[in-house]
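INTERNAL AUDIT FORM
Audit reference: QA-55
Scope: verify that the stored structure record matches its stored sequence.
Auditor: D.O.
Record contents follow.
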Amino acid sequence: MARVFVYGTLKRGQPNYKHMINTANGLAKFQGRGRTVEKYPLVIAGKYNIPYMLNIPGTGHHVAGEIYSVDDQMLQFLDEFEGCPDMYQRTLMRIEVVEWEGKGGAGEARAAAEGIVECFVYSTTTYPPEWVGLPYHDSYDSLGKHGLSYVLRESR
């Protein structure tokens, strides 16, 4: 099992969460909520209003999201869903645990107790330079006050 941190449309209550709970894609078990240890710019960009975490450590905010434990099948699904490695790149990042529900072995409990876990995160280094000038968010909600409604893949 691998640990994945999601900050956008794959979170609970967001438009693509259905993919996280669809066992045909593999298994994803909610472990808790967290935020990036380093600051990153989280922007909403493109004609479909997609949330992107730009891989520019030290700029932006500590981005909030959810931590999942996923099997290899789900990780492969997420790679395809996220257009990895062209649109997003999957990299390991340190995530500060804000709330932990995960039940695992001693390693899991120790990591949660220490407050920092390593997770795969889909961020991007392949973005138009003007995206750096967009507003930065610390958390994403498709219906947030930003007014930029996410366009589902099936509606594009």
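Auditor finding: record pair retrieved intact. Residues 72-81 form the longest helix (10 residues).
Action required: none
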